[in-house]
Amino acid sequence: MARPSEPSRVGRDGARGRLLKQENFVPMSLEPARLQPMANAIRALSMDAVEAANSGHPGMPMGMADVATVLFTGHLKFDPTAPDWADRDRFILSAGHGSMLIYSLLYLTGYAAPTIDDIRNFRKLGSPCAGHPENFLLDGVECTTGPLGQGLAMAVGMAMAERHLNAVYGDDLVDHRTWVIAGDGCLMEGINHEAIGLAGHLKLGRLNVLWDDNRITIDGATDLSSSEDIKARYIATGWHVTECDGHDFADIERALQEAKADPRPSLVACRTLIGKGAPNKQGTSGVHGAALGGAEVAAARETLGWTAEPFVIPSEILADWRLAGEPGRAAHGAWAGRLEASEKKGDFTSQMAPIGSLVGPAIAGYIDDLARNPKTVATRKASEMALGPLTAAIPQLVGGSADLTGSNNTKTPSTLPMTAEDYSGRYVYYGIREFGMAAAMNGMALHGGIVPYGGTFLIFSDYCRNAIRLSALQQTGVVYVMTHDSIGLGEDGPTHQPVEHVMSLRLIPNLNVYRPADVIETAECWALALTTPETPSVLCLTRQNLPQLRGKGDENWSQANNRSAQGGYRLREATAARKVVIVATGSEVELAMTCADELEAQGIGADVVSMPCAELFDAQPEAYKADVLPTDALIVSIEAGSTLGWERYTGRSGINIGIDTFGASAPAEDLFAHFGFTAEAIVPQILNKLNA
Amino acid sequence: MARPSEPSRVGRDGARGRLLKQENFVPMSLEPARLQPMANAIRALSMDAVEAANSGHPGMPMGMADVATVLFTGHLKFDPTAPDWADRDRFILSAGHGSMLIYSLLYLTGYAAPTIDDIRNFRKLGSPCAGHPENFLLDGVECTTGPLGQGLAMAVGMAMAERHLNAVYGDDLVDHRTWVIAGDGCLMEGINHEAIGLAGHLKLGRLNVLWDDNRITIDGATDLSSSEDIKARYIATGWHVTECDGHDFADIERALQEAKADPRPSLVACRTLIGKGAPNKQGTSGVHGAALGGAEVAAARETLGWTAEPFVIPSEILADWRLAGEPGRAAHGAWAGRLEASEKKGDFTSQMAPIGSLVGPAIAGYIDDLARNPKTVATRKASEMALGPLTAAIPQLVGGSADLTGSNNTKTPSTLPMTAEDYSGRYVYYGIREFGMAAAMNGMALHGGIVPYGGTFLIFSDYCRNAIRLSALQQTGVVYVMTHDSIGLGEDGPTHQPVEHVMSLRLIPNLNVYRPADVIETAECWALALTTPETPSVLCLTRQNLPQLRGKGDENWSQANNRSAQGGYRLREATAARKVVIVATGSEVELAMTCADELEAQGIGADVVSMPCAELFDAQPEAYKADVLPTDALIVSIEAGSTLGWERYTGRSGINIGIDTFGASAPAEDLFAHFGFTAEAIVPQILNKLNA
């Protein structure tokens, strides 16, 4: 029987330069003769599953099987019976196309899922073994990967979360590592530069990246498109780099030990043969993303000495694999005992719990004050004001900005800098790294214990768009603070003026896009954003000042009467017979009010509907929506952005006031006039339509 | 008087290892005493303009004024009287927020614009001196910059274009350099990694990047967020690196000479003081993005010894500046003589001219054949088929893919690889660098003489979205070949299935988004994409096979009867009395036809409208649109993507068949059934609505 064989030992966590108790976790140490068939089990399952699906990527799992086997048996701290144990090591398969690697590992080590039938149904409808690993389908899949580079970048966020919580709660409760398997694509994508720059700067020594250095991409050899000295680049960015023969168990073991010992984040270049075991195709791009075919599978079985039927793992090999999680299970037990005995148990438990119930009470008094003492401020400033009480009351909130702190207004007195010298801070200077920031926030949210928010200009949502999408797909509660939300940013001009961005973000499923109209709506939107832990939010905020439009009836505010929760609501009711409903968002609600005043002055009844969140409005009952946007009135939309999409509310016969061209460089008030955002320009259009 | 003082000389172009004739261009060489007031003229104009606008970034122009002065007087080959001279050096201000630097330089060296009044109106409506430099507002602004990192990445494309055209036309006609001024932000953004990786791999020795190494970002010192050894990183990526004191003219000169001499692309780290000259604010983030204020401007004038009134340049300094373009003007004259004498004159002239007239004839025969011999192929394959005759006939077409050549079907027999050993090839293996690819394509298009197209999966339009936006803003004719355009990609699952992308790209102004329904529409869309040189295109193409729906009437095809040119057209006309119009795109047009068949079988007249390009349809006369989508019929849209936006055509009472959630992993046909894309699911909805 395999047994944990290493004695208790004391290791050195160089990143902090202090001694760490490692007796909590004593992994197995198996001889190579035992490891080889275990690794081949991964190869067999991977090629069989890809073959059955006639779709998928066998090359990576087969190439990295040996490295993964050493990692899972000798280093990774995990408890298959408790995949959500807070102090587990995180394992990220950044090269998500090699998904059969992680499915194999989860099955072999005895997670409740996937079952062998799930693996048989790889890439078929309903199987949790999807084409790429999805965090919402399988425990043990820490994050959704496939969009290249983002797994590693999310791992950076997880490693940040670990260091932060460690700084707050100590080694007894938080003391784990983050492990990544990444491919050439993950290293070639631009986000890699941002992610490793952040990790190097923050000295995330507990982050270890195992690079599948197989020198093959889909188009062919990596030297078709790259001449980079990757190791030198990582060293230049503050990383420790080592390498190993990815098919020599002892050498892999040495490299992982070295990675753990170094105080810097580590890159382990694992020299591998893609598709190792498939004798005629290994080492070529032909094995990257296509099934091997029956003949080659047969040849591979011969090469590997694998005689079991497809999807069958010999019992002695499976038994060895099932032992791999035992050390972690024991460590989990010890950890649970320490938690029970800890004076920080209550705080730690709250830290890891949802924050929803904290939000309303944290902010109610602030809104009460606003109701009584109106404020004219930019909504970016209103956001900062709301963040004051929120960050004071909710320790999970960790803020930051991609080098626009003073513009995004994301920093509060409660959020001190998180640095390599003091990870306990709750504010991250992300640098000019929007994509890296967004992915790191996803990682922190997925780690648990942290609710991240981060700022940039709304236009630069383009730079991190796929990470926002992954926030939504992965069902995280990340909050994006996107300021300078229209031509209202003024002089910086069209490169910096989001025209299409608000609408284009609304298109992303499971993402709430908020565009509040004043200081109270901004607070309400923050309150909503922090109470949807499975739906990320984008707050689109102005650079320019906006008058307070709300207040009457908000004096005894609570989440229960958060008017923004309906997504859109009647802010002003027609006094004359209603003929027009003007629906607007953000900075244009004030303009809608002015237009309505002018119409009413001419005896034309006009409602104004503020719609801070179209997604929440769409989710209201039909009767509510029909009441707010009746079919017997002319519906007019005003939003300083794309009109496409507004027809959902205005129909083919309504009026859509917006901008369908790029903006221009000028002071904001000149631009609003130039692009027709004045009552003088809009009211006549409404009158013409009514008279048509 | 300043005079060109260097003798003719013979330099060595190490990238190719051969001798280059340099006598064509002999720049000035002025002593530092003459250069200093010239540099201070930039400082004065920059601080005055920012002060007048009370908006802008004075720090960068003041910090880089000395470097820019050496570059423009001693190295840059340009003719202010002919900004579009094909063989000029390209100068890119990648740190576009420092726009007053380039406006100052263009004014001082005597370009027709900007005038001093334009500079007075910096950042005001109508001034060509916009907040960030816009290529469509000023000659001499080679590309629009501001979105950080992209200027440098576009410069890579320009340098590729230069080497390609040099390989084809020789040193006599194409022999210029690309110069970049970049800031810390340009180097920190992820796209930097992609861009310099491509440049290093392709050994673009004529690309020189002058890095404004001022160690300040908006949030503060660069070490707040970065610990990277930038020089080591560039060296690791195949670059030559040198450095200089950015305020020592002789040292700058030495570094630029060194950069020109090295066969690799060069990074020159110019150690500067941000805002140099403003005695109390220089060297701090306070001078980065805000006006200095009257007192500090006065102090700066004192420090610089600058006594002229605001916006006035003393005549002797202006006279020196006006000489800077003389060597380039002379070189331009010599070049024109060589062109006139060249046997390649005709070819070169065609190469640099618009390609529109070549397109129809290149592809007409191919479409004729299809009309007579229908083909069932995926539209990505149809794209490859169309590219065959197009790339054979049009030498300007340069293709590529971000490591998905075999999936995007972007390579043809006419497009051989472009490599460091042979730049004459017309196919770029961009590597796993979507953003870098898109920016490089923008650079190639802006350089002229090349019409670039490049492929990736449609989902990864997210990774390069802001570069697509810059294609549109800059009015380039770049073509994006985006395959695997819906859940039809199947097994790869939701991370790889574009749901919101087609609609979200439609939101970008001046971008044509094509989603052809069959092999003929695909060819038509290509023909359209290549005849809009000021509007970029995205072709959204299927992975899966589609039947040919067109052909009758297409036998004598020409651009004049390109039916896709109307954006949407009646593909099938109701035979019974029309009650329904089904409008669909791409792979769903086939389904629309089936639904129409079933409706007609029940006596319900149904048109089918194919809408390969909504933007072109929107641009049609109202009468045409009303005829195609009449208000007295039920309008039904079918597109395997977001429904939001389709209400423009279907109104509040139509039916929108689409997907407003993420996809799933399964074979394509299972997914289409699962998500309701079958006649069995759709026809009853139509009947219910008609009977409601």
From TrEMBL, chains A, B:
Residues 377-548 form the Transketolase-like pyrimidine-binding domain. Pfam families: Transket_pyr, Transketolase_C_1, Transketolase_N. It is an enzyme of class 2 (transferase). PROSITE patterns: TRANSKETOLASE_1 (PS00801). It catalyses: D-sedoheptulose 7-phosphate + D-glyceraldehyde 3-phosphate = aldehydo-D-ribose 5-phosphate + D-xylulose 5-phosphate. Keywords: Magnesium, Metal-binding, Thiamine pyrophosphate, Transferase. InterPro entries: THDP-binding (IPR029061), Transketo_C/PFOR_II (IPR009014), Transketolase-like_C_2 (IPR055152), Transketolase-like_Pyr-bd (IPR005475), Transketolase_bac-like (IPR005478), Transketolase_CS (IPR049557), Transketolase_fam (IPR033247), Transketolase_N (IPR005474). Its EC number is 2.2.1.1. GO terms for molecular function: transketolase activity. Gene3D superfamilies: 3.40.50.920, 3.40.50.970. Its cofactor is thiamine diphosphate; Mg(2+). It comes from the Bacteria. PANTHER family: TRANSKETOLASE, TRANSKETOLASE 1-RELATED. Belongs to the transketolase family. This is Transketolase. It comes from Erythrobacter ramosus.
